[in-house]
Write a structure and sequence with these properties.
Helix content is 58%, strand content 12%. The protein is mainly alpha-helical and 126 residues long. It folds into 2 domains: 64 residues, Orthogonal Bundle (Arc Repressor Mutant, subunit A), CATH 1.10.10.10; 43 residues, no CATH class.
Length: 126
């Protein structure tokens, strides 16, 4: 899976939040809601790049394009997490978790919840 820019990721987050599909107007509204007002050409370029990378599919309904995620948010997050883990921690999950604990980035309740999940328990909703 190819890397995406920060703005491309913002577009994908809007599409994922919208159930995996969105019209151009919905994407623009989502960007504006996040105070990311971009020109029409910029948004169209981002959408085109995402399609070229295979992360987004485009289809027509009448005169309008429907943009559909070709990659789920979960799959994207998993891929990026593994990439980060390998790049920064040379694949050491222990190193990553040690850093999270040492820098107080993992709260005790988060730790307990993860431990419960690892033990086969139910994960609480965010």
């Amino acid at each position: 899976m190819q890397q995406v820019s920060d703005y491309e990721l913002e577009v994908m987050k809007i599409i994922w939040t919208n159930g995996g599909t969105a019209l151009y107007a919905e994407i623009v509204a989502g960007l504006e809601a996040k105070n990311n007002s971009l020109t029409k050409n910029t948004v169209l370029t981002l959408l085109s790049r995402l399609a070229d990378k295979g992360i987004l599919k485009t289809s027509k309904t009448g005169r309008r394009n429907i943009y559909t995620a070709a990659v789920t948010e979960n799959d994207y997050q998993t891929h990026q997490t593994i990439r980060f883990l390998n790049k920064v921690y040379e694949g050491s999950t222990k190193g990553l978790v040690s850093t999270l604990i040492a820098k107080d980035l993992l709260s005790r309740s988060d730790y307990d919840e993860l431990l419960n999940q690892w033990s086969g328990g139910v994960v609480a909703d965010e």
